[in-house]
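Quick one: structure for this chain?
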Amino acid sequence: MRLGVLDVGSNTVHLLVVDAQRGGHPTPATSIKSELRLAEHLDARGALTDAGTSSLLKAVVAARDSAADLGCDDMIAFATSALRDASNSAAVLGRVRSETGVALEVLPGEDEARYTFLAVRRWYGWSAGRLLCLDIGGGSLELAAGRDEHPAAAASLPLGAGRLTREWFSADPPSRREIEALREKVDADLAPVARELRRVGEPDLTVGTSKTFRSLARLTGAAPSGAGPRARRVLTHQGLRQLGSFISRMSSGDLAELEGVSPSRAHQLVAGAVVAEAAMRALKITELDICPWALREGVIFRRLDTLDGSTRGDRSAQDAPPSLGPLTPEQARCSG
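Got it. Here's what it folds into:
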């Protein structure tokens, strides 16, 4: 089948179209992105503004039409932290559905971590052993660990690179005092989660996903995107610490000139580096591999896994580890 996946994130609205079948490797056909920065359109009450909602509606309509033009048999549409945190998310979701016909689901943060973990497991396979997976987004940080397709432990923290940049930095580049204050906050938030993840056991492989980790790895010498998705890319803790000292003195304009850094996300890179370094330190990670698959691919695999004659249930709701609990039912995800 040709499947469209619409990911409404804190920074972008991203439509990924793949040709996929159950048990097969999803082949990307088209990728279309719109830079909306929805998280920056929340007002003082935490509600998505009229302007932000209007931009979202236009982006969803464009994605819907593109998916139809590209011959998609189905389109999965979901949103992450920007809409998850919006105080008026239910109203916004209602407008999206009534005005575009697209049923946009809000994924709980823990489900984000679990879908991403699934994608990482499928990429590396069973031979990778026990996995530890980290994903830094615009609004949140997801972490998961385990030896199966379902993580034994998963967590989501409001430590996204964009969120922290807005809430903790007032200068460009940020002052040393602001960076140190942010580091203390991130360390405190990570401590209990790190203890829980370490109880799962020593990982055989630690993996980072997301644009933030890819950019940091590229700046420390990893292969460029032109080398293809199967080129091994590694980020070391030592290299990250050295890089953090360097980029923390650069303005976002200067960072945008660096290879591997998206101009639209350059202003978030320092906060992202602080979170990445703190997470690696808290979890005693010396190096991690960069995985090209993440949340969108995990959503694709879960959709394909449920093509067993019934689309009402999600098998993962029955076979997740008891200690973790089932994935949030679709009805709850749609409610906002």
